[in-house]
Amino acid sequence: MSISSEHKPLGKQVTSSLHMLSPIVELNVGGEIYTTTLSTLKKHPGSKLAEMFTGQPKLRTDSEGRFFIDRPGTYFKYILEYLRSNQVPTQCIQDVYKEALFYDIEPLIKQLEDSPQIFGELVARRQFLARVPNYSENIELMIRIARAEAVASRQSSVIVCVVRTEEDAARCQDALNGLDMDKKSVVKFGPWKAVPSISDLLDCIQMDVEAKGYKISFQPHVAEKGFRFKSHDFFYKFLFTWW
To answer: 10 Å Cβ neighbour count for 64?
Structure first.
């Protein structure tokens, strides 16, 4: 005996052409349930989101037959609100920006990049850090050193040498030769050609290490007596607190 179309499981229906679907669509985005229309989802034809719902379905369905998108559901509401009313979100900007990039919604991406939060990160801070040689690699090196020294300790420290100019780099190397420590454990940042100061770079280091989940603080490193230069001209101690 055949089953009438009205009793077919929804999961069966969505595996057929999208033209057979109701214009009303249910979505499961990372566990969050949304109801919208196909026309809303396809509002920007060149986007990845529109492509998901063009032609044959390109998504899996959950046990209830809803289209499933394996992304953070919390921020999809802001994506959906933009598609419905062109309203640019004012909350969770960084996270919504990541989702806009994933769904490749170009108009939203451009508008978010004009927001102070994204503009400051992309145009100002990241452009500065791109001019600091091996910045990302040095952040990872700091973390490796701190973790290696954390055995049976509540805290571990990393000495950082920060130089802004080539002249300071030469002086720093001379100063480093006078330090009574393992020179391989000193992480060097700089020099760079940009307006931000040493203080700005130190703040960036703290910000990016903390973004990885670590609790840190820093202070000028005071060298032993007899040191030819003021050590805080170049050297800083970053303290990792583990518990």
So the answer is: 12
pLDDT per residue as tens digits for the range 168-203: 888 877 777 766 555 668 899 999 999 999 999 999
Tell me the two tokens of residue 166. 């080539």
Is 61:68 a contact under the CB 8 Å cutoff? yes
CATH for the stretch 24-114? 3.30.710.10
* Residue 206, φ and ψ in degrees, nearest 5: -60, -45
Strands (E), the chain: 24-29, 32-37, 60-61, 67-69, 155-162, 187-189, 215-220, 235-241
Residue 68 · residue 59 · CB < 8 Å = yes
Q: Could you give the C-alpha distances from 2 to 10, 11, 14, 97, 114, in angstroms and in order?
A: 16, 17, 19, 48, 57
| pTM of the entire predicted model | 0.70
CA distance 73 to 75: 6
Is residue 49 within 8 A of residue 41, CB to CB? The reply is yes
Which residue, among 119, 80, 84, has the nearest Cα to 96 in the 3D structure?
80
Q: Would you give the DSSP letter of residue 24?
A: E
Question: What type of residue is 99?
Answer: E
In the chain the first and final C-alpha atoms are separated, in Å, by 66
Weakly modelled stretches of the chain, pLDDT under 50: 1-17, 19, 226-229, 231
